[in-house]
Every structure is written in C-alpha cells, then in structure tokens.
Design goal:
Layout lengths: L7 E3 L9 E8 L5 E8 L7 E6 L12 H14 L2 E5 L5 E2 L2 E2 L10 H16 L3 E7 L1 H9 L5 E7 L8 H10 L3 E6 L7 H7 L6 E6 L9 H15 L9 E3 L1
Parallel strand pairs: 4-5, 4-8, 8-9, 9-10, 10-11
Antiparallel strand pairs: 1-12, 2-3, 3-5, 6-7
Helix pairs in contact: 1-6, 2-3
C-alpha cells in the first residue's frame, strides 16, 4: 500500500477496515438454509443496517460481488453502518454456498423475506435500508415490501424481472428510493430509466457520468458508497480517502 504522511494509508480495493464480522445462516419459510455475513461497527452498534441483494448468480453475482464486499470492508468503520450480505438460494461465494437452486427471481422472494426478518429479529437492526444491485434491484422492488424497511437503494437497475405492479406498489407506498443509473449501463441508461421509473414520484434518479453496470474502478466504488451513505447516515460524509493504521 502507498504510504502517505505519518501512519495514514490510501484506501485501496483490498483495504479492510476494523469491524465485527460474523458468519450467519438462516432458514427460509420453505426450508432453504442461506449463508451470509454481518459486518458491524467495532463498537457493536447495529442500529443502522444495510441489507445487500446481489447481482444475478447465473452471471457470477454473489454476496462477494465487489461493491458489496467493499461496503462490508469499509462502511462499518467509515460510516457506522452494519452491512448484511447473503447468498440467495443456490449461490456460492468464498463463505460457502446457500442451499437450493436458482429460482429465476420467483422463489427468491422467500430469501428476501427471511433476510429482512433476520436483520430485525436476530441482528437487532433498528433502521434497515435494502440495496439491490442489478438482479438484486428486481428482488428489492418485488419483495422488500416489509413495512419496517426504511427504503431502497438501487444500483444499475435493469428492470428485467420487475413488473409494472411492482413499481406501482412503491409509487403508492411513498417510501424513499434512490437509484444510481450508469451513463453507459448495458441494460438501462439514464434517459430510459427516467421514463421507466416515472410512475414512482418520490424516486431520486442519479445519473452517473461515465459509469458502467459493474461499477469497476475505485472512483466508481467511492461514488457508489458515498451515495449509499448519503441515504443511510449522511452525517458521516464525506467518506475518507485514507485511513490510519
């Protein structure tokens, strides 16, 4: 790592900041055991939580998809946010494989509902935001309807599995939704997103210049994590670019 002044070091893709990290597992209502991890601030405060719904597992998506891995590595320390990640049914990562098979965005309803319940009932989160990335945004729009959820943060939403009635639900629900739309997204670019999401009056659409669907590159990671913190715990902005060893 590059040394800066004193004991400060630049935050790199591999940077892992202090946190309480614990593996978790929980059962869905249809008897599937899912695995995951809770990364909480080192003081144990889990009052603010971020539940991460990962990209499409048939295309490599998992709980360790890089934005979520970096969120878990950084946000507990940087922003006082407990980051909860898990693998949907049939999905494998470094931490292990969840039981079951890919459910085509249908049976994953049980995964999302079980994960939300786990966040509140076991982890003890008081205020929970749900973030989805790509396929995970469809899961969020379709299934993260629990009234205890504070709102949604959507990263690169393709609107592939979502249906008009899903958007209509959130329009009537009124809870806040923030959506980050990459300028060069492979599936839904800003102008199309403006039209598709027009049914939801409270949504905040953020077009990210030069952004791509996978948010590759540290500047885009920093932008995504900053936008998440702006929603969940804005008092901790701006996020630091370096850390003390």
């Amino acid at each position: 790592m590059t040394k800066l002044t004193g004991m400060a070091e630049l935050i790199r893709p591999s940077t892992v900041l202090p946190a309480q990290r614990n593996p978790i597992s929980f059962l869905t209502s249809d008897g599937i055991r899912l695995i995951g991890e809770v990364s909480a601030p080192k003081n144990g405060d889990v009052s603010l939580g971020l539940l991460c719904l990962h990209p499409l597992p048939t295309h490599g998506g998992m709980m360790d998809s890089h934005i979520y891995k970096k969120a878990a590595n950084r946000l507990p320390d940087m922003a006082g946010i407990a980051v909860i990640r898990f693998n949907t049914r049939g999905t494998k990562s470094e931490q292990g494989k969840s039981e079951g098979e890919f459910g085509g965005g249908v049976y994953e309803k049980e995964d999302v509902v079980a994960a939300i319940n786990y966040c509140f009932d076991v982890v003890g989160v008081k205020k929970l935001w749900v973030t989805g990335w790509s396929f995970g945004t469809d899961l969020a729009l379709k299934y993260a309807r629990d009234s205890r959820v504070a709102g949604l943060i959507l990263l690169s939403p393709p609107l592939r599995f979502s249906e008009p009635n899903d958007l209509e639900f959130w329009a009537k629900d009124k809870r806040p939704i923030t959506a980050l739309i990459p300028e060069f997204d492979d599936y839904l670019q800003p102008s199309a997103a403006q039209e598709k999401f027009s049914v939801i009056p409270q949504i905040q659409l953020i077009a990210v210049k030069d952004g791509k669907h996978l948010w590759v590159g540290e500047p885009f990671v920093y932008r995504v994590l900053s936008e998440i913190v702006k929603v969940v715990n804005p008092s901790r902005l701006p996020l630091p670019l370096e850390f003390e060893r």
